[in-house]
Amino acid sequence: MPPKKVLIVFLTAAFLFTFKLLQVPPGMETDEGVIAHNAALISKTGRDQNGRFMPAFILSSDKMDWKQPVSIYLTAIYFKIFGMSLWVFKLVNVSVALVSLCLMWVLLRTLLGDREAVWGTIILMTTPMVVISTRIGTEAISPLLFATAWLLTIALYRKNGRLINLVLSALTLGVGFYSYKGMRLVIPPWTLMTIGYIYHKSARDWSKFFRSVGVFTIMLFPFFAITPFLEFKYPGAVFERATLALESYRHYAYYWLSNLDLGFLFLQGDVGRIFSVELFGSFLLGALPFFLVGIKKAVDRMSFFTYVLGSYLLTPVLFGMAGSMGYGHRLVAIIPAFVIIATLGIREMRWRWRALFGLFFAINFFNFFSYYFFKYPQLHETRTAFSNNLDRAYYRLATLSKKEQLVPYVQENVHEQHGEGNLFFEAAYFDRPLTLWKQGSKLPPNSLLLTNMELVDGLEKFNIDAAPLFIQKSR
């Protein structure tokens, strides 16, 4: 495939992932604020909001949730290199998605060829859950990178049999284990599948099998062996503290199969309100014909695509342990396998059917595009979920106070309203902690106030856009 065409695909994906990046969604959500705030603090001082130096996990302000290290420290690195802003924070997940896209390109080219790599990357970058989770600064997009990288290492091991690919596979699974809490249920099946493929590749050469499994296990073992220490030091960060209740096989089968339900995956919005887009599932409905044809091809004859299909089916097999159902963003890890099988289906179709279903796919995507980027941000439910839209206000306060050499103040109840998000803006845009102003008190001379009141008695309003707030200075 000529490099020019590859570049066009990549640039199209970059445009899609960054188009209206600060407007869709229309604000910050609480979990985003926790990650951004702590990453900003760590990039400045090496300590999180709880005062811990370079912690493996970060406890949220409400003491109810632990944030995983991969997203926090990757964001901190970005802040160190590019500076602190909401745009840079959002750019972290965009970068993860673009790297995943590049790995998918290599993977599909290895398995199917150049032309098919174009088809597959188009499917990946237009998948609704990829578009949605890329634009939300949580950990949900991380499994896309690790799932793609894992399948790539297995595909390369299939191709050349080199042990370095098993080393990379183990490192991918080990780091991926700490990238997202839901990956605790995903990595064990992938580990067993890797060992199963090593057995298949060894073709009953037991010395080769034990040598390969030994290398893979030695590289992966430390990531699992350290969990008791981490759980002792950060209770509940690795595993939930609730006692695991043993249920019947029907319980686990129910959750497993429910997460593979086609109606849910292709037509139903996410249960999680920040990931839910009405009438659109995790996958485009237009990709379903390709996927079904790919499944038929994968089961017709045993091949590596059968293995990929197996990874798709087995990824949520343990979800019953967490009672997880209806959360499409927790299934990001199955997207790479879905893309491979759907791409296989495109290749197997006759060109007339390919053109017909390709047209349906394009119409379905543009339907999603127009809804998500233009109607979705205006919905009341969306604005409630992403209620912190104060980035511009804090940024304008910071730049204006420096320019005018004034002391910045923020109205107390405004600053406290959105918690972690506003603390991130404070850490990102100001050199020192902000001073809070209580309504009704007098503002000192040479001060600048960010307030939700259009005009405070005794203050002079600045003619500057800080919507939905106002900036005023003392006379």
UniProtKB/TrEMBL annotation:
It is found in: Cell membrane. GO terms for cellular component: plasma membrane. InterPro entries: LipidA_mod_glycosyltrf_83, RgtA/B/C-like. GO terms for molecular function: pentosyltransferase activity. Its main location: membrane. The chain crosses the membrane at residues 87-108, 117-134, 140-156, 163-180, 209-230, 274-292, 304-321, 327-346, 353-374. Residues 69-223 form the Glycosyltransferase RgtA/B/C/D-like domain. One of its GO terms (biological process) is lipopolysaccharide biosynthetic process. Keywords: Cell membrane, Glycosyltransferase, Membrane, Transferase, Transmembrane, Transmembrane helix. It is a multi-pass membrane protein. PANTHER family: MANNOSYLTRANSFERASE YKCB-RELATED, MEMBRANE PROTEIN. This is Glycosyltransferase RgtA/B/C/D-like domain-containing protein.
